[in-house]
Each structure stands twice: as structure tokens, then as C-alpha cells.
Amino acid sequence: VHMLSNNAFNALLKTLEEPPKHVKFIFATTEIRKVPITVLSRCQRFDLARIDLEALVKHFEKILDKENARIGKNALHLIGRAADGSVRDGLSLLDQAVSQTEGEITEKQVREMLGLADRTQTFDLLDAILTGRISDALEQFDQNYRSGADPLAVLEDLLDVVHWLTRIKITSAAADGIDVSEA
What we know:
Distance between the termini: 41 Å
Number of strands: 0
Largest sheet: none
Mean pLDDT: 85
Low-confidence stretches: none
Number of helices: 9
């Protein structure tokens, strides 16, 4: 619904103010801020929560089993993390991975598909940054870029690692979480 123009919202507003008894509108959006308040005030709103990583992975495993497709555990978790709680987005990524690969889908193939740096490179980059080796950090970042990693994804990976390390510092049980990479 957030893709509607202002004119379309204005035309819709009249119908929302006096809807026919037999009509129900269901609007879906991922960008609620783009929907005018005049429309929002006439709607009953349901915010759907993101699906947690473990539930996504289990759902994807069921689908892969039915499709007789094979994927490595780490590769499947990467797709789940990239989906960011969205089943639809995760299924699109999973479909893309399955269609691009013959045999078992590996973590390396999914990383390349998603434009992610190798996890060990992320740790090396973070180490260079934290120890003040800025020249090395810039070179590693450039190397990731030249090998096909999306710069924004590299930064997000760095943020994920820092967040994970902070959680471990507060509670050591975070190190045993299902979303922790083997690397």
C-alpha cells in the first residue's frame, strides 16, 4: 500500500470513510511511515513480528526436504540471517540458491550470491581496525570489495560481530547461540 500515489490515497480515502458493508480491505506494507495518517486513522492495524532465525531455518529445511535439495547448515543459516525475519525474502533467496547450484549448496556459494565476505575476513578486518592498523584494514576492505563483497554487507557483518562480542561480554551463553558461525 505504501506504493500508492497521493492521488490514489485521496481516492481511496472516500471509500475508507464510507465502505460498503460487504467489502474488506487488507493493506500490507513494510514502510508504514509512507502511508498517510488520514488513511491509517481509518484502519485497524496489525504489526506482524519478524520470524526468528531458528524458525526460518526449520521452515526452509522442510521445503528443501520436499524439493530434494541439499544445503549446508551454515549456508542455510546465512540465508536465514539475510532474510532478516521475512519468510518471503528468505524463500526468494533460497530459490535463487537452489536454481544457481547443482548438488549441495555450500556456504561459499551463498556468500558469493549474497555478496558477503568470508567470515574469517570479517574477523581479520575487525582485528585490523581495533588494533589501529588502518592501512591494513583499508587494504582488507578493498580486497573484499574486489572479490565481490558488497561494502554495505561487509559493514553489516562487522556490526554483527561487534554486537555478538558485546553480548558475549555481558552473557557468555550468547557464544552458544544457533546463529553463531563456525568460523
